[in-house]
């Protein structure tokens, strides 16, 4: 591995771009590769075995391109695959992500924290362990959000249909007294502007994109692998419709990027 090698970033779709943005900001001299597994989205309702198999396929794809690190920019794929991938590639810097329960427990004043995430994440043993570890002194209200990821994947961040769906998901959290809401799926930070319009200003929204970028920087730094060249542009692959990703990318990613097909 050398400093000039790329970093591979992966999500079921465009959600991981919220993490890629944090990586780009913190590590501007890296060459970034991104795979959106849009042909198999949503992961939130898929079996862990299926998600592990997809994650392994993407990991191998990045290995073949000489990636010096692998970021699973997806909470759902992290619970399903990170442990196995760490075993598969013990020497490869690998960063996963999980809902920000610890910072939310520290931030809440009302003592009630809400978690918006996929069904897969909320049902996982890893999430239960996270609550056991960091949420013993607070009440946690979980809210799965089926359908939300699919709307975001169309590039819709503002429509009345999206607003209505989102309202239905945040209302139970507000009614339960949550003053802090964890965005536990990497797609949801795209909805922050809309959420900020819909929610009382006192509500704190927490996501983990910036923390993931910091962890990546730390792992690369320890290995003297932080890039120093100005990269040409990020490269994107999708297992879904290439033209669709090309069309919506400019609204979700403000830097140059080239989109190719990942195959099925
Ligand atoms: N973006 C993913 C996450 O962070 C999941 C979206 C999906 O359901 O595919 O959990």
TrEMBL record:
It catalyses: L-glutamate = D-glutamate. The active site is at 74 (proton donor/acceptor), 185 (proton donor/acceptor). Substrate binds at residues 11-12, 43-44, 75-76, 186-187. Its EC number is 5.1.1.3. It is an enzyme of class 5 (isomerase). InterPro entries: Asp/Glu/hydantoin_racemase, Asp/Glu_race, Asp/Glu_racemase_AS_1, Asp/Glu_racemase_AS_2, Glu_race. SUPFAM superfamilies: Aspartate/glutamate racemase (SSF53681). GO terms for molecular function: glutamate racemase activity. It comes from the Bacteria. The keyword Cell wall biogenesis/degradation applies. Keywords: Cell shape, Cell wall biogenesis/degradation, Isomerase, Peptidoglycan synthesis. GO terms for biological process: cell wall organization; peptidoglycan biosynthetic process; regulation of cell shape. The keyword Isomerase applies. Pathway: Cell wall biogenesis; peptidoglycan biosynthesis. Pfam families: Asp_Glu_race (PF01177). Provides the (R)-glutamate required for cell wall biosynthesis. HAMAP family: Glu_racemase (MF_00258). Belongs to the aspartate/glutamate racemases family. This is Glutamate racemase.
């Amino acid at each position: 591995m050398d400093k000039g090698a790329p970093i591979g970033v992966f999500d079921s779709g465009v959600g991981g771009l919220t993490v890629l943005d944090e990586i780009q900001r913190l590590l501007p001299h890296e060459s970034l590769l991104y795979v959106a597994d849009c042909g198999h989205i949503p992961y939130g309702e898929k079996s862990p075995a299926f998600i592990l198999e997809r994650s392994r396929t993407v990991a191998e794809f990045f290995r073949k391109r000489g990636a010096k690190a692998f970021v699973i920019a997806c909470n759902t794929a992290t619970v399903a695959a990170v442990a196995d991938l760490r075993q598969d590639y013990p020497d490869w810097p690998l960063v996963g992500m999980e809902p920000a329960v610890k910072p939310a427990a520290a931030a809440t004043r009302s003592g009630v924290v809400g978690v918006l995430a996929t069904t897969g994440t909320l049902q996982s043993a890893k999430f239960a362990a996270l609550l056991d570890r960091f949420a013993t002194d607070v009440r946690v209200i979980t809210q799965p959000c089926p359908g939300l990821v699919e709307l975001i994947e169309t590039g819709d961040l503002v429509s009345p249909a999206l607003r209505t769906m989102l309202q239905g998901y945040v209302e139970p959290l507000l009614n339960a007294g949550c003053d802090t809401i964890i965005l536990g799926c990497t797609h949801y930070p795209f909805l922050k502007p809309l959420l900020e319009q819909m929610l009382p200003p006192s509500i704190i929204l927490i996501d983990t994109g910036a923390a993931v970028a910091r962890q990546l920087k730390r792992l690369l730094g320890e290995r003297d692998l932080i890039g120093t060249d100005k990269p040409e542009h990020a490269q994107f692959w999708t297992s879904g419709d290439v033209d669709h990703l090309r069309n919506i990318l400019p609204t979700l990613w403000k830097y140059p990027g080239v989109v190719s097909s990942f195959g099925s």
